[in-house]
Amino acid sequence: MISCSLEAINNIPCLLLTLATILTVTLLIRNKQQRSKPAAGLNLPPGPWQLPIIGNIHQLIGHRQPHRRLRSLAHKYGPDVMSLQLGELSYIVISTPEAAQQVMKTHDLEFASRPSLLAPNVLFNGCKDIAFAPYGEYWRQMRKIGVLELFSGKRVQSFRRVREEEVSNLVDSIALLAETGEAVDLTSMMSAVTSAVTSRAAFGKAPELSDAFMMVVDHISDVIAGFKISDLYPSFESLPVLTGYRARLDRMREASHSILDRIIDEHKSRRRRAGLIEEDMVDVLLNHQENQDLGIPITDEVIKGVTLVSMLIFCFVLELFLAGIDTSTTAFEWIMSEMIVNPTVLKRAQEEVRQVFADGSVDEAGLRQLKYLDMVISEGLRLHPPVPLLLPRENAEKATLDAYDIPINTKVIVNAWTINRDSRYWTEPEKFYPERFMDGSVDYRGTHFQFIPFGAGRRMCPGMSFSLAIVKLTLASLLFHFRWRVPTEMTREGLDMTECFGAALRRKNALRLIPVLFDDIA
Ligand code: HEM
User: Fold this and answer.
1) What is the CA radius of gyration of the chain?
2) pLDDT (tens digit, 9 = 90+) per residue, 466-506?
3) 17 CA from centroid of ligand 1 (Å)
4) Region of 455 on the Ramachandran plot (φ > 0 left; ψ -120 to 50 alpha; else beta)
5) How far apart are CA 297 and CA 299, in angstroms?
6) d(CA 325, CA 369)
7) Is any ligand 1 atom within 6 A of the Cβ of residue 460?
8) Model's pTM, two decimal places?
9) Could you give the CA distance from residue 22 to residue 78 in angstroms, rounded to a whole number?
10) Which of 39, 155, 161, 369 is buried most deeply by CB count within 10 Å?
11) Any idea what DSSP says for residue 262?
12) pLDDT at residue 330 is higher than 70
């Protein structure tokens, strides 16, 4: 998912420098700019001690895995709900399924907004996307269009051929490489497949322009991941030390807008030639423009010559790329890694795939018979949620959680990684054991709060089906066509499983494995 301010805290080297600057500047002008303090007499959730000005930032500094650090802080200071002060902003951290249910079900409406962060503000013309739009009529309309038109089961189904073609190309390239006996970089390969499927779903076949768009998106992902001091000290947004970041964001927005404008123009001229066709996501939105049934009020949203519809397309498409590619690749690489270190799981999953597709080709129609693979995917998402700290939420009114008062505009971080490993709900929670999902009583669809890789409630991920369709087809195909070995210098148990916290909780090192073609399929 798109990076949030907190995830960045692990990216500390540049933080220290920036922090020193901020501290100095803050001390100089703190009489002018006071950070807001909650009114006295409130029953706030417990939390660790705070320093003036930086609050609890020092307790996160030096910890490269903030989800793990927040778990240990929560154990000590606030097992369910913990208060943290990060710079100018008040946060609460949610670390149990019960508290998550309070936030995302019982009080879902109260906590349905998002904090305003600089990057989405600039990139999405003032958070005009789905993920970062504040709760309200605009977000509702955007989400409705997204859920009905872009991420619905019907729409995901319509990209079946695209997925099958891209995964089949992947299998062909791996088969060629298998002849060399060398390890292949499965992480990069999966990233390429996900990007190709996403770009064809969004733009249809427009390879040159979509490649250019992908390059800008990659750059955006790099720039927005990491510590963003401007999000923790919003009153200092205009300080020179921060304006460079804003200027970079501006440039990236312009670059991606201009590529997208050309893509939209191409679509429009093709539509003029071929009549109304509904092929990809840009076409779907252009159809709505022509029918004037978007439902979003057309105010004076003409920004630098960008029409409202181009802007909507821009927000949807950019979000699709930013939200979908890293998360799906991450889910895939961890599931595959866990199967490698748990050979009995790999064997069982492989037997199932080869039995279901005994006639020799993997297709999406047969995927639903892969019940064991479903359990493997669930277990992978439980142990390695690609978004370990859910996108922050915010309450637009003051609220209460259990007995605690939560002042207005508190940022809420739900630590899904910790929640998914709660030993009160999961036996041996650190173990990769897909059979725990055998009875089908718990799933990731947002009603079981001990397992929330896609979040829950109004702001739950709408891209779940889009993502799982690619992940499952790729896993099934790779298990069907190849046996997988670790490079000779390592053992299965020795496979490096180090995490790297960023836009998604990736593997630190790419997953490199040796493919061996199943003889009878060759
Ligand atoms: C394995 C893959 C994915 C995972 C684990 C994932 C996870 C998440 C999570 C945890 C959230 C926040 C939910 C909350 O606040 O309760 C989210 C939001 C979102 N995701 Fe995903 N996501 C994935 C793939 C995708 C894809 C492929 C797309 C687009 C096609 C997408 C689009 C979005 C959007 C637009 C939101 C914001 C929803 C809102 O604020 O209303 N995600 N995702």
Assistant:
1) 23
2) 999 999 999 999 999 999 999 988 888 889 999 999 879 99
3) 32
4) left
5) 6
6) 26
7) yes
8) 0.91
9) 29
10) 155
11) H
12) yes
Polymer length in residues for the chain: 522
Distance CA 442, CA 261 (A): 44
Cβ partners under 8 Å of residue 185, min gap 6: 510, 511, 512
Instruction: Name the token pair of 35.
Output: 């950070």
Residue 209 Cβ inside 6 Å of ligand 1? The answer reads: no
CB within 8 Å of 135: residues ≥ 6 apart? 112, 113, 114, 396, 458
Token pair of 427, please?
């036996």
Q: Would the ipTM clear 0.95, i.e. be above it?
A: yes
* 3-state SS class at 393: strand
Q: Which two three-digit tokens encode residue 263?
A: 């893509």
Pairing outcome for strands 411-414 and 89-94: parallel
Q: How far is the CA of 468 from the centre of ligand 1 (A)?
A: 12
392 CA distance to ligand 1 middle (Å): 12
Segment (H or E) for 197: helix 186-203
User: Is any atom of ligand 1 closer than 6 Å to the C-beta of 112?
Assistant: no
The two structure tokens encoding residue 142 = 């955007």
Query: Which residues neighbour 101 within 8 Å (Cβ) at sequence distance 6 or greater?
Result: 449
513 within 8 A of 335, measured Cβ to Cβ: no
Query: 461: annotated binding-site residue?
Result: yes
Instruction: Give residue 470 CA to ligand 1 midpoint distance, Å.
Output: 15
User: What tokens appear for 174 in the block?
Assistant: 């791996």
Largest alpha-carbon pair distance within the chain? 76
